[in-house]
Design a protein that fits this description.
The protein is of the alpha+beta class and 803 residues long. It is built from 24 helices and 25 strands. Strand 1 and strand 2 form a beta hairpin.
Amino acid sequence: MIKNYLKTAWRNLLRNKSYTAINIVGLAIGIAACLLIFLVIHFETSFDNFHKKKDSIYRIVSAFKTPEGINYETGVPLPTAQGLRIDYPQLTVASIFKNESQITVTGSNGQILKKFKESNVYFTEPQFFNIFDFEWLSGDRKTVLTEPNTAVLTQDAAEKYFGNWKDAIGKTIKYENKNILKVTGILKNMPVNTDFNLSVVISAATLKNTDFNGNLKDWVSTFSYSYCFIVLPPSLTIDQFNKDLVPFVKKHKPAEYAKDGMMAIPLREMHYDNRFGVFSGHTFSKELIGALSLIGLFLLIIACVNFINLATAQAVNRSKEVGIRKALGGNRKQLIFQFISETLIITLFAVMLAIGLAQTALPFLNQLLVIKISTAFLTDPLVIFFLIAVILGVTFLSGFYPAMVLSGFNPITALKNKIVAGRSSGISLRRGLVVLQFCIAQVLVIGTLVVINQMNYFKNFPLGFDKDAIVNVTIPTDSMSHLKIDALRNQLLQQPGVKKVSFSFASPSDNSGWSSDFKFNNSQKRTDFAANLKWADADYFALYQLKFVAGRPYIRSDTVHEYVVNETMLRKLGIQNPKDAIGKYINLWDEKKKTAQIVGVIKDFNVVSLKRPVPPVLVASWKDVYQTINIKLQPANIKLSLASIEKLWNSTFPDYVYEYQFLDDKVAGFYDREDQLSTLYKIFAGIAIFISCLGLYGLVSFMAVQRTKEVGIRKTLGASVSHIVYLFSKEFTLLIVIAFGISAPIGWFFMNKWLQAFTYKITLGPGIFILAIAASIIIAWLTVGYKAIRAALANPVNSLRSE
């Protein structure tokens, strides 16, 4: 019996090739989009789930109380792990510290063979590998990092340095051209779904031999890439431990930092918590997961609605078939199975096509989101289960209503081809489905337009400093290299195309930040806020065209001699007139050498991305911490200038890797995630509009068939082609307007909520919504124009012949 249903269904589908093709394409695109979204969500929710102790692992983070609220910080002071280990012996504790570094491979006589700038260099303790389950190719995880000046490499890193990872054991590498490290173990390459993108792992004991030695007992300084992890025993609850952290912080931190705090958050939440960073730099909020899930579900619903519209549009054409089947003894149950079988076949073909589309689009999606989802996703049982659920769900949702409509025809009426009963209610349901389709599509269009406008706002917003044709080049931080700074400055200014040169810790807007509280105007109390410290030479202000509202730039000096502050700093200090700040003293860290007068006030400029407000800024010279060369170039000869800069660099620092970045690229990088989402929304909105137009085409097809006689009579009575087209056009235009009336407030609510995450944002004016409905109407007109004109041009004689 089932074989007969399928065979008959197959013949019917072949007989209506265009109907079948449109349905398969519409469903396939919707299912492919839904599948891709499922793969992304499945990937993002799998991060670090492979660790056996994942439910007991917690990360210690910092929380600073300020007048504006609590500021969260991912990192903790370097001695935190040792302090926890002593105070809570029942815990398994490990620290891990990331530091972008140069790794050099040398020959037997010390000559440089290879040099690399590595972003994934970490210092950690042996306990780290007792907490986390990473696979080893060589070495004992309990002992490989117990001694100073030892390191573990991943397979890729070992092969990059030594050709074959098996040859790496026992060899040496050099860290920052200072510390010679012996390779004691090889890790298997990190899984793609981990936030620990390890490459080179150095023993934490080696920190004593680096520039960070002074911070090993410093409970005040917090490094954003200094993480601490614990394994909580069953006898201690997380609520109790977080309460215990309050006296722990008070015990170890100086009394004036009593406002500082710590808290433990679960490892399973680490990948989704936007308040804190992760080593991979790739967090994925649960709100975003929810939004993508809804979009995937809506795209699938749109595809099913499209199927229903097209199936019911075909109902009149199949009325005689239904009448004959019923006249020959077929019952309604058999007819329902027959039509459900057709839906199942279409769905199976659509799923197969969707899999092919998903595999084709996956490399683009991986590149867009900077993720690594395998194209061999069909080997994952969860993906198979998802596809089976989609097949069953789509078959039922798409096939049930058309099957009920078709099987419910009266056989006598059907044989006379006079299917009019229930026409009004049928059209009402189909109208409702089209409204639903366009409502979802317009919400996506509104969201896309808002994201595009917000991104354009970011790109065109004046940041308060010059960022055009400026190159940032990182320089070595050792004292010997810093002795070459003055000579290098003079040589750079002689290069073709170089206009200005300045040395600093970082550029005006940079991910590398340094903040601290301070004492103002000889006060004995520290400020209750931290200032963003910008260490830079006196040429910094002219190069970046920072505007002064009072005072002047500080004089040339290699050490702190004078300070310049920004307007936000004055507001924080309660100073109304910028001139009143001139001559006031600032003291950093209770050091006499860091006590100096304010000599200038500059206009606010954006220190970080426009998602956050401008912080208080303190600028001073301190040559010892400079690690960036800021170079302003002539726009006409940038390529030639870069080549001459690189040549000069290699002659000045032959042992170090040359690396540069344009400042405007760095600033644009702040909004990579928003750019990715903007592209995704464009794609999803386009898919929604495309499938909705297929549904609209189905409705117009239904109307054209149902109103064939009406059109014939109207033409006989003198109606023009344009009038007939208008009859069809006003129908769907009204539906789109109704859909817009529903989608506009929904789109406004969600996008206004999304914009609240940004300090600098656009205003949701009427322009975006007018553009959304205009685009929907124009696209819809283009979609139905062909069918409407064809119906209007039909010969009325043929339409009325059977009457």
